[in-house]
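hey so i finaly got around to running the thing on Cobalt transporter subunit (CbtB) from Streptomyces syringium. pasting the sequence first so u can double check i didnt mess up the copy paste, my clipboard has been acting weird all day
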Amino acid sequence: MAQSAAPATGTPAVPAITPISLKEIAPWTLFFGILALILLYFVGAEQGATALISGEGVHEWVHDGRHLLGFPCH
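ok and heres what it spat out for the 3d tokens, dont ask me to read them lol
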């Protein structure tokens, strides 16, 4: 007697993984890249001659981050 190769019942089907196209991910990559550059500017360079906001407010808010990332500030 030959046994048939029938699939096991009660086994859930595994959904296929569809790849994300470059068209779908490019705007998000650009958005987060620009956001990262803005954050890097405020943490690393927002003081002195290149300051967009006058005063020491931004410097005080990002002071510990500057030290953590290795930027000199005093």
